Amino acid sequence: MEDNPFHELSTSQFGPLPGAVFTIDLASKEAAWAFIDRLQVIRRATNLFDRKSLAIHPASTIFGLFTPEQCAEMSVPDTTVRLSIGLEAREDLLEDIKQSLEK
């Protein structure tokens, strides 16, 4: 989005269509993992970008070897979940996210 501090960087690197990765922050690390565990269509992963939609907990995977202080310096809280959107039907993905957040 244009008001995002990384919009200009994203546009310069990826053009007008930067991809379909969404980052959400939940109330706690436990809430982030519970959200991932309740997903039924979106699959848990240790990497992103596939034809399937994937969910990842960056602080435990990509940044798992960094200290909490280093993660904080890199703006990687343990409350963050990243979703890489694949080819599934939009309605199925939205319903999956909705049901996971509501439980």
Describe this structure in words.
The chain is α+β, with helices and mostly antiparallel strands and 103 residues long. 36% of the residues lie in helices and 15% in strands. A 4-stranded mixed β-sheet has the order 1-4-3-2. It is globular and about 30 Å long.
Question: What brief labels describe this structure?
Answer:
103 residues; alpha+beta; single chain; 4 helices
Layout: helices, strands, pairs:
Blueprint: H1 7-14, E1 21-25, H2 29-38, E2 43-44, E3 54-56, H3 68-73, E4 80-84, H4 90-102
Quick summary:
With 103 residues, the chain is an alpha+beta fold.
Sheet with most strands: 4 strands, mixed
Percent helix among the residues?
25-40%
Task: Assign the structural class, choosing from mainly alpha, mainly beta, alpha/beta, alpha+beta, or little secondary structure.
Answer: alpha+beta
H and E string? HEHEEHEH
Radius of gyration: 14 Å
Shape: globular
Distance between the termini: 29 Å
Count of strand segments: 4
Q: What fraction of residues sit in β-strands?
A: 5-15%
* Largest beta sheet: strand ordering: 1-4-3-2
Counting DSSP H or I runs of 4 or more residues, the number of helices is: 4
- Poorly predicted ranges: none
Mean pLDDT across all amino acids: 90
